[in-house]
Structure to design on (269 residues):
């Protein structure tokens, strides 16, 4: 039975430690040597010689040392909102809350969304690009609309809702004039009111 | 004291004027004109009143308590 002695390549030392004589030494393709003794025991000695992968630019999987936790490339830290961004968000939230009536405020606090009544039917603000509209003249349907303020990505999200809320509450026809219909779906029976 | 709140990346920028201070009124009026040229939309309201009590205005009113400037909207 072969034994692996990876740390030693010295046949004489090994032989001297064994009672049997070495009868054969065979070079193995990976750089180690197979030593056969007179009592039919076999051992493999030496260290595997690294050989290049036949495909240029590719390395053997086992040839790459596993990355240590320190050496592992660090994922760039997730950008936490900068203090000024947090302040902007808080400020925008304050303005939005001041524009909501008590029912809308409770809905906003619970669901981060709220309904705005319009002559055409209520519109729910809270999901950017997917504003739900329940038209009065289609009681079994709800429409998915998309309306955004100009350069809305510059604004804290609460400002986007303040912007849309004011237009919807004061000039609803302007809102519906520019709205893009993204889809429609059947209203659940509970929502048909 | 009146206040304009202009929605922007900081949340909003405020500009105030005093009804008994013509200089501040003139500054606010000039700003009002500039924002109209930028196609921003002014809504006046009593401070703290909900959106459905706001009113779209077309000229600067020094007696307005608060004017909230929003951006024009478009289908996304």
């Amino acid at each position: 039975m072969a034994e692996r002695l990876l740390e030693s390549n010295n046949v004489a030392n090994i032989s001297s430690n064994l009672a049997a004589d070495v009868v054969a030494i065979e070079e193995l393709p990976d750089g180690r040597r197979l030593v056969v003794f007179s009592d039919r025991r076999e051992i493999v000695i030496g260290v595997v010689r690294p050989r290049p992968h036949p495909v240029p630019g590719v390395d053997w999987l086992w040839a790459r040392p596993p990355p240590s936790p320190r050496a592992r490339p660090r994922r760039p830290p997730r950008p936490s909102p900068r203090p000024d961004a947090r302040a902007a968000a808080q400020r925008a939230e304050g303005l939005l809350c001041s524009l909501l009536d008590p029912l809308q405020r409770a809905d906003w606090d619970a669901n981060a969304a709220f309904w705005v009544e319009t002559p055409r039917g209520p519109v729910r603000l809270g999901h950017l690009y997917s504003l739900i509209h329940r038209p009065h003249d289609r009681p079994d349907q709800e429409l998915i609309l998309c309306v955004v303020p100009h350069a809305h990505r510059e604004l804290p999200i609460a400002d986007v809702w303040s912007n849309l809320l004011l237009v919807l509450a004061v000039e609803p026809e302007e809102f519906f004039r520019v709205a893009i219909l993204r889809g429609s779906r059947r209203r659940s029976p509970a929502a048909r009111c | 004291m009146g206040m304009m709140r202009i929605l922007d990346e900081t949340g909003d920028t405020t500009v105030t004027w005093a009804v008994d201070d013509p200089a501040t009124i003139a500054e606010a009026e000039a700003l009002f004109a500039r924002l109209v040229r930028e196609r921003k939309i002014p809504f006046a309201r009593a401070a703290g009143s909900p959106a459905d009590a706001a009113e779209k205005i077309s000229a600067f009113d020094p007696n307005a308590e608060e004017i909230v400037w929003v951006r024009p909207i478009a289908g996304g």
